[in-house]
C-alpha cells in the first residue's frame, strides 16, 4: 500500500510538471531569447516564508540564482509541524487540581511530527515582466529529502493515593496507562514542552511540492510574494499520530505562504 500511494503522488507530480512546461514553453522561449541580450538587474535572491497548511504550520528559507527573466533556481529549507487531520482538542469540564480550570489537550494523541525539508526547486514565470515592479505569476516546484522528527506527546495524568490526595505525573501513551491516558477525567492537561525530546525518533523520507506564486515585483529589490500549493511528504515508515487512527507514511497538505526577502 505504501509503494502504491507513493508512486501515485510521484506520477501525479510529474504530470503537473510536464503540463506546466507545455503551457509555459511558447512564452518562455520568447522571453528567454530576449533575456540573453539583456542584463539582469539582479542575480541572486533570498527570502523567508511563513504560512499555514491543512495540518499545521511551516516556515521556510529560499536561496535563489536568477538564471533568466523567466527562470530561477532555488535551494529550499523548510521546517514545520504536521498534525493528524482528525485530532481534536478536549478539556475536562471541571476545575484543575492546581488551577482554576483544566488545560486543553489533544485527545488520544501519541506523537507530534516535525518535518525538516531540504531540497532543490525552480521558479518559472508564466506572465510578462516588462515592468519590473508589476505583479507576476510563477509556477514553482521542488523535491528533496524530508526528515521527520517524531516526538512522544506527554500528558499530566492524575493519580491519587489511598487518602485521595492527587498528584500529577507526566506520561506518554503506553500499555500500562492507556486507560488513564484516554480518560478525560484523569487528565489535567498537556505536560510542558521539555518532555519527549530525548525520546524523539528521526524518520527519513522525501518530499515533492508544487505551487502557484503571486510575485509583487519580480525584479524589484524587495521580494514580496504569496504562494498557494501542494506538498507531499513520504516517509519510509508509518508514523503513529493518534491512538485510534491508522498510521500512515504519506502526508498530503495544501499550503498558503507569504514571503519577504531581498535581491542583489
Explain how this protein is built.
The chain is mainly β. The chain is 14% helix and 52% strand. The chain has helices at 2-35, 178-181; strands spanning 44-53, 56-66, 71-82, 89-90, 105-106, 111-125, 135-152, 154-160, 166-172, 187-190, 201-216, 222-239, 248-263. Residues 27-37 have low confidence and may be disordered.
Task: Give the domain tally.
Answer: 1
Number of helices: 2
Strand order of the largest sheet: 1-2-3-6-7-11-12-13
Outline the biggest β-sheet: 8 strands, antiparallel, barrel
Mean pLDDT: 85
Annotated CATH topology: Porin
What's the CATH C level? Mainly Beta
The outline comes out as: elongated
Question: Rg from C-alpha positions?
Answer: 23 Å
Instruction: Supply the CATH architecture.
Output: Beta Barrel
Q: How large a portion of the residues is in β-strands, by DSSP E?
A: over 45%
- Binned, the helix content reads 10-25%
Structural class: mainly beta
Instruction: Please tally the β strands and state the result.
Output: 13
Helix and strand string, N-terminal first?
HEEEEEEEEEHEEEE
> What is the oligomer described by this structure?
single chain
Between the first and last Cα atoms, what is the distance in angstroms?
A: 47 Å
Catalogue the unreliable spans: 27-37
Amino acid at each position: 500500500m505504501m509503494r502504491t500511494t507513493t508512486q501515485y503522488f510521484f506520477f501525479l507530480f510529474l504530470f503537473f510538471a510536464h503540463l506546466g512546461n507545455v503551457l509555459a514553453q511558447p512564452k518562455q522561449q520568447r522571453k528567454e531569447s530576449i533575456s540573453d541580450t539583456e542584463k539582469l538587474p539582479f542575480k541572486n535572491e533570498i527570502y523567508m516564508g511563513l504560512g499555514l497548511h491543512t495540518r499545521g504550520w511551516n516556515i521556510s528559507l529560499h536561496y535563489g540564482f536568477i538564471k533568466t527573466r523567466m527562470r530561477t533556481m532555488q535551494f529550499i529549507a523548510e521546517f514545520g509541524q504536521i498534525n493528524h487531520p482528525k485530532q481534536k482538542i478536549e478539556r475536562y469540564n471541571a476545575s484543575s487540581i492546581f488551577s482554576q480550570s483544566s488545560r486543553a489537550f489533544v485527545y488520544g494523541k501519541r506523537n507530534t511530527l516535525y518535518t525538516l525539508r531540504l531540497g532543490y526547486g525552480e521558479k518559472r514565470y508564466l506572465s510578462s515582466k516588462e515592468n519590473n515592479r508589476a505583479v507576476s505569476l510563477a509556477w514553482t516546484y521542488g523535491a528533496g529529502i524530508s526528515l521527520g522528527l517524531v516526538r512522544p506527546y506527554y500528558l499530566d495524568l492524575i493519580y491519587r493515593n489511598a487518602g485521595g490526595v492527587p498528584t500529577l505525573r507526566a506520561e506518554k501513551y503506553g500499555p500500562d496507562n492507556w486507560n488513564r491516558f484516554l480518560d478525560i477525567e484523569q487528565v489535567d492537561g498537556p505536560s510542558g514542552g521539555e518532555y519527549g525530546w530525548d525520546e524523539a525518533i528521526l524518520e527519513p523520507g522525501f518530499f515533492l511540492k508544487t505551487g502557484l506564486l503571486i510575485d509583487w515585483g519580480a525584479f524589484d529589490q524587495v521580494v514580496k510574494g504569496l504562494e498557494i500549493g501542494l506538498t507531499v511528504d513520504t516517509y519510509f515508515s508509518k508514523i503513529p499520530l493518534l491512538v485510534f487512527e491508522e498510521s500512515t507514511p504519506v502526508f498530503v497538505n495544501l499550503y498558503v505562504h507569504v514571503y519577504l526577502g531581498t535581491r542583489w
